[in-house]
Structure formats: C-alpha cells, structure tokens
Amino acid sequence: MSLPLQEQYDKVYKYCWFKMKNAHLAEDLTQETFLRFFAGNKYISRGKPLAYLYTIAKNLCIDQFRKKVAEPLTGELEDTDAGLEAVELSAVLQDALKILPEDVQEILLLQYANDLSIGEIATFTGLSRFAVRRKINGALSKLKSAMREEDFA
Amino acid sequence: MNEKLEKALKGAFDAPPPKRKAEFLLSFEYPAASRGDFFMAQLGYIRKRVWVMSALMVAAVMVALHYQGDINVIVWVCASFLPFFVLLGITELAKSMSYNMAELEMSCRYSLSDITLARLGIIGAVNGLTCIILTAVLSRVSGMGLFTFTVQMFTPYLMACCFSLFSLNRFRGKERLYICGGASCFVSVISMVVFNPFNIVPLHENLLFWLFWLSLAWTMAEAIKFIIKPEDYPWNLSLTA
Questions:
Q1: Are A138 and A100 in contact (CB under 8 A)?
Q2: B-chain residues near A106 (CB < 8 A)
Q3: What are the backbone dihedrals phi and psi of residue A112, each rounded to the nearest 5 degrees, phi first?
Q4: What is d(CA B72, CA B54) in angstroms, rounded to the nearest whole number?
Q5: Residues of B in Cβ contact (< 8 Å) with A17
Q6: How would residue B154 be classed by pLDDT, with cut points 50, 70 and 90?
Q7: Taking CB atoms and an 8 Å limit, are A27 and B21 in contact across chains?
Q8: Which of B17, B2, B7 is nearest to A90 (CA)?
Q9: What percent of chain B has pLDDT over 90?
Q10: Full-model pTM
Q11: Which CA distances in Å does A69 have to A15, A16, A25, A62, B75?
Q12: ipTM score here?
C-alpha cells in the first residue's frame, strides 16, 4: 500500500469514532481494520486501496453495532487556539450537522476531514460521482441555511 | 462563507486523540513489497523521455523503411544514433547518485545497489527490446548475415556504453554526465564519418569486428564494476555524515 500508515491510522480512527462515538472501541476497530487490510495482501497493491480500507472499517462498525448499542455521544468540544469565533462556529456546525442524514454526514467526513477524493468516496459508497457531488452540495446549502438561522452567516 | 464552512467542517469530525496508536504502529508488521512490486515502482521513476525516444527511433526506422532508401544508409544512420540511447540510460542511472539519493535510500528496504541494478535491468530491457526490433526489421531487408549486421549496427552503441560506464565509474557529480554526453556525440560522429557505407575513410576490413569484441568485453567489465561499486556509497556517506 502506498498510503502513509500514520496518517491513515488517524483518518480511519476518525471515521470509526464518527460511527461508534466511543474512543476505545473506535481504536480497536481501527487496528482491526489495518490488520484485515494487510491480511488481504493480494488486493492492496492493485485496485482502490482507500475504498477497500474504508469498506473494512465500515463493515467492522456495522458488525459492532449488531453486537451492542453504542454509548451516547458526549458532545464535548475541545477548546483550541483558533479563537472564540472558530469555537462558536464549530459548536453551531455540530448542531447543524445533526439535521443531516448519517450517510451525508459520512460523506462530509470523508470529503473534508479525511481528504478523500470524490472518486474514492463514490467507489466506497457505491454512488456515482455526480450523486456524491449532489449530496455534498445539498448538505452544504442545508448547513448554510441552518447556520443563517443561528445568525452565523 | 463557503471557505469558512469548509474549514470548519474539517474540524467538525475531530475525534479524541488515539491512545494506542504508537504502540500499535511499532508492533505492526508491515507487509513487504514483492520483487514484482519493487520493479514496477522503479519503472515509474524512469523518465518518460526514455520511452519516447525508444518509440521514436523504432517509428523513424519504420518510416524510413516504408520509403525504402538505401538500406545501408538506414543501418548507418541508426547505428550512429544508437549512442544517444546509451546517453539516455546513463542519465537515468546517474540521477540517483547525482542527487545524493543514497542517504535516503539507506533508510529503505532496498539498497542503492538493488535500485541501480533494477533500473539498469529495466533500461537494458528497453534498449534490448528496441535493438531486437531494429535487428529483426533491418537485418532481413539488408541481406547481410545476422552477425555482420549486429556488428555494423551495434558497435557504436557498445562503444558509447563502455565510454559512458567508464566515466560513471571514475568521475563524480554532474561532470560525468557531460563526459557521457561528449562520449555519445563523439561515437556518433565517428560512426557517421568513419563507418559509413560510402567508404570516405578507407578502413581495414576487420577493424569493425575487433572494435565490436573489444567494446563488448570492456562494457561487460565496466558494468560489473558499476554494479559492485554502489555498495561503497552507503559506507562513505555514513562516515562523512
């Protein structure tokens, strides 16, 4: 795999945390994802490694959901040096994100937080590129209008 | 607004920092790339000009054959251009050493000599393939025997090979590229002027055969030296770092 392992670890962990909302479980699933990814040695040098990696992570999260109900979201926001406005924006955005369906949130996570390309997201989600773009644009305009309602435009 | 929102979205999915990442990555057994993967990776580092020039050479011969000039002239011109193939290959081999890639490559699974050998193999295979195509096409049309044709065609190529490998083995830095360039041009001009079908310069009839065998032996000796030599580089760099 020609992917930087350190960087991908954080991104897959972020994805698992988004799904499970439990740091310990998310880390277990991340490690299991990498073990399974590299166990499938024949596939990784070909095809689309990122989509394969995220598919394993997603399936592991689904298996985990079947086993038990996830712990509720704590919703803690870590204060950063980015300033008050950024923290406020982040809080408003967190609330606004909740109005979006989970699959759309997932696409936004992959696109903005994990820097996957539209093509990679399309392969992973099984949607067309056009559908992915449409979902992202729709989500952005929904977020914007929700944030306008909160006087954050 | 869009830019601000996209920036905020980047951080909106932040998770608490992972606690067992370093421990996992340290104990994680990263699967090694196979020899095939390694060769394919090296293939990607060879500059496109090598492929383009090989294709152009073969295409030019095909075009020349189509318009069917004097076959001896075609062989003569091809033989005179082949030294520039050597120059292309040599610039690839010198690239790694000229930019001090040895230090970087020391941290990798494959040593500099492995990488040089792989590239030498790939470039040799490309040049070999081009030569086979040229030989297959031209020797049949020329009516010369295969050996006579090979000698006529590839003596300048082998001469350029041995001069270039000689300079690679003895000089350092960018100057060796200029020497290789000079050697290729020199051999090409010699081939154009001396070994032409019009007998401008009268030659002993066996001179070309002697030059062929001499160049072949010298090229092999320099190639062996070149393959063994990179083993010294990591040591030298370790001592001077």
A1: no
A2: none
A3: -95, -40
A4: 21
A5: 15-16
A6: confident
A7: yes
A8: B7
A9: 1
A10: 0.48
A11: 17, 14, 12, 11, 78
A12: 0.70
Q: Which residue matches tokens 């609330």?
A: A95
The SS3 assignment for B24 reads helix
Q: For residue B220, give the nearest of B152, B139, B165, B145 by alpha carbon.
A: B165
- What confidence tens digit (pLDDT) does each residue in B189-202 have? 888 777 666 665 56
List chain B residues with CB under 8 Å of A80: 11
Work out the angle at residue B24's Cα, subtended by the Cα atoms of residues B19 and B25, and round it to the nearest 5 degrees. 110
Long-range contacts of B23-27 (CB under 8 A, 24+ apart): B24/A9, B24/A31, B24/A34, B25/A5, B25/A6, B25/A9
Q: Give contacts of B 14-33 with A, CB under 8 A.
A: 14-16, 18-21, 24-25, 28-31, 33
Report how far residue A24's alpha carbon sits from residue A35's, in angstroms, rounded to the nearest whole number.
Answer: 17
Segment A87-140, tens digit of pLDDT: 677 777 888 888 889 889 999 889 888 888 888 898 888 889 899 999 998 988
With the C-alpha atoms ordered B186, B189, B194, B200, is the resulting torsion angle positive or negative?
negative
Give residues with Cβ within 8 angstroms of B161, minimum separation 6.
Answer: B86, B215, B219, B222, B223
